[in-house]
Amino acid sequence: MDRLWAPWRINYIKARKGGKCIFCKAGRDPKGGDYVIFRSRHCLAVLNIFPYNNGHIMVSPRRHVADISRLNKEEALDLFRSLNRAKKLLEKIMRPEGYNIGMNIQKSAGAGITGHLHIHIVPRWTGDTNFMPVTSDTRVICQSLEELHKLLKNADSKTN
Length: 160
Hints:
CATH topology: HIT family, subunit A
Strand content: 15-25%
Shape: globular
Structural class: alpha+beta
Order of helices and strands: HHEEEHEEHH
Strand order of the largest sheet: 1-2-3-5-4
Number of helices: 5
CATH superfamily: HIT-like
């Protein structure tokens, strides 16, 4: 059996399941913790700490709501403005060649967090699916969350 040393996963493993919603917690933290990139009136953008690819951002309404049909008009508009803002930051800092953008609504659709709606933005580059995920079911993330968070926050503060 092959092993990949991933000590950062221990925080996820030890975390109490069923605890407070990560999006609600991030939306209230005045210090900008939990890798929050920006907050708008109704939404926030945060780095995924278990990313599918480098630069994986989640955009979420600040209000705890599970389905897009429960958003009011202002929240829905702000959600898509925030999605666009996060995408522009990724373009500025990372220059991806494409994106996977989507929502997983409810557990059967793949949602890991079922109670709080969020949109995933995953930057993509030609060839970013290499032999590691294919042969060993392992992804290689080439940049620390701390470094990327700092770059995105800095770029956002210069834009807004």
